[in-house]
Amino acid sequence: MSKKRLKASKYLAVFVGCESDSLNTLLTKQKNGSLVPYLNEEELDTLWEEIYGLFKAKVHIVFISQDQESSKRDVTKEYKDVWDFVEGVIFLAQQTIQAQPPHIPPCLAQNVKILHMFLCSPLIAPSVQASSANLCLEWHKKELPSVGLRENVLKYLLKTALNGTAKTNVHRLCEFHNGLDNKELNKGIRELIIQAAASTKFLFNIKGQNFLTSKIIADNSLVEETYQMLKEMACSGKKKHAAIYGKIFREVWLLGAQDTKQLIENCVQDIVEHVFLLPRSGMEMNKIGQLMVCFLYQFNCAKSPQIKKTFSQLSCPEVWKNLHSDNSVYRCNATDVFFHMYPLQRPDVITRPETQIYLDMQHEIIKKLLLDECPIIRCLAIRGVCKVIATWWFSIEPETRYGWMKIIIEDLTYDASSPEVRCCIYRSLKHLLTNRHSTKYLETVMPSLREQFADVSDKVRKAYIELLIKIKTTEETKHWNIVPLEQILVHLETEGPVLGVLLVRLVFDTFINKKKPVTEMVRRIKLTIVKNRDAVFNFFKYIKPIMGFSDAAKVIDVFLDNIQEYVKTAISSNRANEENISTASVMTTRQQNKRKRSALVENEKIVSENDLTKEKDNDSKDVSKNNLSLDNPLITQTLISIVGLLLKNYSEELENHPKEQKIIHDKCVVYFPRWFTFFKDSDIFKSLLFTMGFLPRKSTSRMIMIHSYYMSQVKKLPVDADESTYLLYVSALCSWGMGGQILELVMGWFNDAFRARSLNSTFTEQKQKRIKIQDAVQPKPLLGIKLLSAIFINPANHIKVMKNNYSEVFDLWNYLDRIKGLVEQRLKVGPLHDPLLTDEFIRECFLMYMKLTAILKTPEESERAQFDSSATYLELVDWAKSVLYPEVPEEIPENETGVASNFTESSSSDQTSSLVISILSDLLVMGQNMIDVGQAGPNFIFTLGRFTLTLLKKGSGLVFLIPSMCILRAVVEYCKLYYGKKDEHKMFTMMAYLIYKRCLITMSQTKYRTEVASRYIKLANTLAVLSSTAEDGEIEVRISVG
User: Fold this and answer.
1) Domain assignment of residue 1000, yes or no
2) CA 268 to CA 745: how far, in whole Å?
3) pLDDT tens digit string along 515-530?
4) Within a domain: residue 103?
5) CA distances for 827 relative to 44, 132, 769, 832, 884, angstroms
6) Is residue 610 part of a domain?
7) Where in the sequence is the domain holding 904, given as residue range(s)?
8) Is a pLDDT exceeding 80 seen at residue 901?
9) Is 918 exposed, middle or buried (0-12, 13-18, 19+ CB in 10 A)?
10) pLDDT in tens, 343-377
11) Within-domain flag for 928
């Protein structure tokens, strides 16, 4: 038996064995699970009379047994036999309705009426309600005899649509609703419709919108309810919501009665009156204003003349009034609304000449807005003009367009009052690209703005570049006709990362284009290197967001092969020249004896030829700077550096692509040793060292002695070595996991320096497994400080060393603790007459000790006890109170070169005082840094704050002004972040208030000479105004340090 027959038999089985003999007799006529087709009309009437009696009795059991606890009972299981009977009734009813020709017994309508009642009862099983709803919908769809209670179906469908997720629930509701007469709704349905008006299931569905429209028309009291909902939604809703409500209200106005129209007009009038009064602080309205404008726009864009006329009557007078307001905020809002509604229409203007006059009035007001004294209004006007020109190109006279653009180009591009105005010009000109005619117009306008590409404001230059990128997407306009490539490269040479990436995006296709051969890419890059090497370097420095990994791997591969081919050719050529020279100079003994004189002449000739050859080579080198061969060292040096940059920037991608990684690394391992020898003692060699530093250790280990070479170069560096030089070596060694050897070398130098004051330790160099580090000829402790800075200031080096060499770093910190003893000796005996223990070294070493204190953090997997940086720092503060504070002078030391120098020309007391001031200033700044990075608690801040106040109260407290203000800023930011309005916030703001008050007192003291005070109060103009307000005993301090 088929599934359909089995299902039918199941439903009919519920009637078998009932008390009605007539029903049992009729059931015997079923065939194949079907009964209705085999009954005549009289038998069908009898069938439904019998079922109706049984149906009422079954239903009575459910409703009569309800009590106060009925809501807690599981009605689905408790009355399963009843629900099975109801399902059987619904099945027979569907067969009866679908029979051809249809015959509807009177009792069937009574049964269907009971099913209508099921839809609103909480005692009915959900599955039964769903089946009942389907039957009721089919009953009404076929327009069978009315049984009333249509509201029950509507209410059930509304609940289902609101609680369900399928769109079909809304569609089913709308299909049923279309057959209903619009009339006033009962309270339950009204509440559900109000919920539907707030539901995105209805708002974002066209049929749902139509349903809401018809219901609001049927009951105009819903207008006020929906409008109230719109106002509540304004704080959290989206523009799309407001636009949909506007559309619904517009349709209600078009289709509703006169009293409904009046209610809609009242709502629109209320919005129009208030939208101009909303506060604003920038280019855009606040969120409420934006939603209100979206709502009003639906009326303004309507095609119906009637609604346009009514909307103009409501809005235009308010727009004109606020455009001429003295209040700049009202004018801003009016300008925003004006350009959204452009062109304004007047209901009393009918003829074409009158319309043109009214348009001319609007065009004149636009000119005034472009020249308004408020910069925000000028910005809004610029944006509005560009949108108007692009949208209404054919409706605006060329003279009008020219007048507007003349003001923008000749006046506003030089607006010095606000960079936002200049920035807005280039952001707004993008709108002209939406129209083919205005795009051509923009092409004629932009060359006159070429000079503005060098605007002093980063925001303006960014907007200009983004405009050029947008123009680049159009086929008609070429960006290089606006700003030449040479000018773009000049900016790429100096711009930072943000603008640099945009400039690379702009000119990327100029250099790297898949449609052109690789040789053309190389030629263009070489040509640009000759013209502007730094620009090409930055091009590849900022290229990662634009160029994918596959293209980067291809560029690396091409550059490596080009340089290798050049090196190979150059080596072969050098060997050939050497062989020719040696062959020409070889003479047999016999020839020398016979023709000594001629041999002498020949030798002189050869020597002269060699000299000429050298001169020609020198000339060719000079000429090579202007050609594109790799004989030009500038080109070769830059290409090698570019390879290093790409290896660095795409290191993660290389790890994820082992095939490409192996190809590139294998080439580097083969090529670099030969280059190492070939380029040695040339300017190119440093670039090669830079690039080799970005290869992983497993690759560089295959290049003999490269690690030891880098280490030996570190040891040979002079104390005054350039930062880029020692950073190059340190970064390479750290990336190869050799940071521990640098730490060992530095500790050896420190040990030699401390030995002079008997502060050295029994430190011994650890034996390395692969590379033996020989002792340096002379210890360089100051250079050691620089090497440590190169490790811990560079994020990549810091992470690798802390991960691989934490124990060595901790030992270094522990070793540097002896700097406190050295400082104490220095204060006791005066300057130390040792070239290794200068005041500069003491200060830098103490600073490094504090830096290590701040950055030391025990790894999670380590068995060590957790290192407490805050507690260690506070111990250092306590030591400073007892040792350094007594040495702080009452007068600022006389020193023209400033505190940061070594004070070699000053007296011994001045040198000591300056050293103390330097160390204490560094201590305060380090405390501020620890607060910023979250390593501070209440005790930390109070201790540091009290110590700061103590230093400021000294006679020379002015020298601590700048670090004190840094601490003040950090404390205030900390309070805002961690405490808000809690009690702790009161205490911390009180501490901030005391520090700030003491800073003001220190700055206002008259005992300092002007030239001395001006050295330390150079940040006075960047300090924010202190705002103290008494509120419930709380002193709130708002401070901002520039």
Assistant:
1) yes
2) 79
3) 888 999 999 999 999 9
4) no
5) 118, 98, 43, 10, 9
6) no
7) 877-1038
8) no
9) buried
10) 888 766 667 788 888 889 999 999 999 999 999 99
11) yes
